[in-house]
Amino acid sequence: MVDFVKQHWSYIIGALLLHALFAAIFGLTMLDMSRSPPPVQLAIQAVLVDPSTLKSPTRAQRQEQRERDQALAQEQKQKEQQEQEREQQAQREREQVEQQRREQQDTVRREAEQRAEQERQVELKQRQETEQRRIAEEQQLRERQEVERKKAAADAEKNRQAEAEQKRVAEIQRKQKEEAERRKAAEDARLQQARESELAQQLQEEEGQMQARGSPAMAQYVAMIRQHVERRWTRPLSAIEGLECEVRVAQTPAGVVLSAQVGRCNGDAAVKQSIETAVLRSSPLPPPPDPRMFERNIVFVFKPTS
Q1: How far apart are alpha carbons 123 and 109 in whole angstroms?
Q2: Cβ partners under 8 Å of residue 119, min gap 6
Q3: In this structure, are residues 302 and 274 in contact, taking their beta carbons and an 8 Å threshold?
Q4: Strand, coil or helix: what is 75?
Q5: Are 279 and 260 in contact (CB under 8 A)?
């Protein structure tokens, strides 16, 4: 109760002041009514009557008297009715003031009850929110702990798998290294054997080439190339009798001419150019009668007979 008064002291003081205002208005109304009461009309009013007329009033006088009596009675009735109406109006006003006072009290009470209910709802909501936050925080804590536990278990499993994988990879690498060393040893032996075989074959081929190139058939092969070129040579006007030029030709195994160059020559530039052109026109060159006679670079003396 003390807390309620402390919290709502302003509303309580306002209600007390309003009640005091209604009481003051009601007191002033009653004081005014007591100071100026309505005039009270007597039911019987004295009338001065001429004694001479008492002896024998005429009909007209009696009629007039009756009319005056009725008028007085009617006037008295109206006054009483007005007084009754004023009293009823005052009663209604008092009842209205009392009704307003009760309504004001009810309003203040309802407002106080509404504020108290609102405060109670706010407090209840705050308690509910606090409880919900506590529950949510506990749930979050449990979830974090569960996540951390699962993470720790996953990390441990991951580390175990990583260690197992490292061991497996190390074993595979060891086996691969052993296999590579075995294969390398076998390959080295094979290559050594191949090199020895190739060297023997090369020596044999070189010996055969030397024999072939030193044979009369080689001289015939070179003469055949020279004749092949001379047949495709166009003699320039500046060519002299007894023309003799050294020609170097580079060819492929198929006889395709790669280049032609005239070296020592007793002819002019036009003659040299004509000989190089004739060599290029001679591509492909005739093949040797023996493949061992083939040489990539052929040197012959260009010496036309006519």
Answers
A1: 20
A2: 7
A3: no
A4: helix
A5: yes
